Amino acid sequence: MSRVTTLPELVPVLSAGRHRNPRKGACFMELASFLAGERWSDHPACTHPLLASLARLVNDSLGDADRGRLVMLIPDVVGLTGSDLDLDLAIATRAAAAALPVAPATRQSVLAVGLLTAQRLAAGRPGVRDLVDDLCGAAFAAVPEAHAWAERYARGAVVSERTYRRQTAPHTVAYAVEGIAVACVPDVADRLVHLLEEVVADVAGRVGRPQHEASTPVLPSGGQVRAVSAGR
Predict the structure, then answer these.
(1) Owning domain of residue 42
(2) Do residues 99 and 43 both lie within one domain?
(3) Which terminal Cβ of the chain has fewer Cβ within 10 Å, N or C?
(4) CA distances in angstroms from 50 to 75, 161, 168, 226, listed in the order given
(5) Do 38 and 123 reside in the same domain of the chain?
(6) What global pTM score does this model have?
(7) pLDDT digits 0-9 by tens, 9-55
(8) Do residues 116 and 136 make contact, with C-beta atoms less than 8 angstroms apart?
(9) CB neighbours of 116 closer than 8 A, spacing ≥ 6?
(10) Residues with Cβ < 8 Å from 16, sequence gap 6 or more?
């Protein structure tokens, strides 16, 4: 049965950037830290670091009119963490695969290298290999020129698991969200929200916690979370 978490009467506004306290507003991960009972922070321990990074980037990339669409996902990320490299591979690959077909050409090369690197690391990991291969295959088919460039650029390159976790995966996620945010498509906000939804669902399945078991917040009367902008 799902647990119900009641937010305080004065819910911090969901806004971009880092905030010193709830009176100044709150970003996605700061509200997650609150729901988890942790110290107020946009880097709480309750969520996988790469998933938290994706959530912050999506939060900050959405406009005021769309940021409130994320609020019902916040309880779902509480407790989604783990040390398995498969999580980093799944998160980064989903992000890059979503971005590659629509990102500007100047960003496609980096995204393609990120996907190729993930594919090589995932080759010996049956738990995530099929997902990575499927996502990379679809993305590369949409932009074959970027795939060809990545193959030439990264020929013979080997990235360690440590380097992938610390550098490659975070950079791939950052480039992916930025690539979607500046894409010349009419549904940027929908793509960003859908990406975060997909990643949260995937990570929840991989750590053995279906999304319906996550806490569900009860909003104050009216059920609205206002969105205002603020620099991180």
Answers:
(1) 4-81+208-228
(2) no
(3) N
(4) 17, 14, 11, 26
(5) no
(6) 0.84
(7) 445 566 565 556 665 567 899 999 988 999 988 899 999 999 999 99
(8) yes
(9) 136, 147, 150, 151, 154
(10) 27, 59, 60, 62, 67, 229, 230, 231, 232
